[in-house]
Amino acid sequence: MAKIVVTGKIPQVALDSLKSVHEVLAWDKETPMPREELLKRVIGAEVIVSLLTEKIDEEVLNKSGSQLKAVCNVAVGYNNIDVNACKEKNIMVTNTPGVLTDATADIAMALILMTTRRLAEGERVIRNQEPWAWGMFYMLGTGIQNRTLGIIGMGQIGIATAQRAQSFGMNIIYTRRNRMDEKLEQSLGAKFVTLDELLSLSDVVSIHCPYSKETHHLIAEAQLKKMKKSAYLVNTARGPIVDEEALANALINKEIAGAGLDVYENEPTVNSKLLSLDNAVLIPHLGSATVETRTAMATTAASNALEILKGNKALNPVWS
Ligand code: DGY
After folding, report:
1. Assigned domain for 320 exists
2. CATH number of the domain within which 301 lies
3. Please, are residues 88 and 58 in contact by the beta-carbon 8 Å criterion?
4. pLDDT for 181-239, tens place per residue?
5. Number of domain units in the chain
6. Which of 74, 76, 96 to mutate to test the pocket of ligand 1 (most atoms within 8 A of CB)?
7. Which of 138, 168, 178, 260 could bridge across to 281 with cysteines, CB 3.0–4.6 Å?
């Protein structure tokens, strides 16, 4: 029986699968576990099942001890984990690819529609009981048919977003490290371009790349200036990929038409300038927030933990 520490509340079915075989110390509150508590709990753990609200860094690894075999993140992104430190200590890191692709692509598409059609702004009018009437020129948005969607980071979620946008009549361009296979490009009608080309050609730019040192502030003042004044920026990946202050300024100065954000540079804090802007749609990191998806994420992380503790290979290793 190994000790497994679960750093946040996860669906019961996943917790039960761990508890049926091992000793599990699980945080059962909806709010994130305080750091001091985390540092106490991880002592002696063989596996840490982590949520992205917990930073799993060298200090946590050292506190845990040399018996620590794996950190199984309940997320596809793993920028909350110091993967290099884990690698050096031969601690496996796993994530949950695949199971949140559709849910996140749905949210990206929703943000594309919310920003271009001014849906949050319209909803505020109703809720605030402001006067309104149907009008020929009242609250006009922008149609997305025949417009260009630029996808930054054409991985699974980028592809699923492109598929949705394609069915809405959008043309797809994309940038990523390597070009996709030609058949996939053809099926999406997608064209491979450089980041600069993408920024200047897109009517909507949607971010889907992982966050790393290389993608920190990938979209900052200079890149925002390359976008069309009529273009929208959507981010469902990680907040710090966008320089939030530069984005707020670009929105205030109408250098771009709008932004739809699910993620923020310093979550849960949101740049205060954004809060009063009608051309910013702001939602609280809901990309994977469906019952089905969160259950699948937690059971995937649990399965990784169980396999590793059986001495088997991880199902979803982030390094090998
Ligand atoms: C992930 O899995 O990385 C998502 O951001 C969680 O919502």
Report:
1. no
2. 3.40.50.720
3. no
4. 999 999 999 999 999 999 999 999 999 999 999 999 999 999 999 999 999 999 999 99
5. 2
6. 76
7. 260
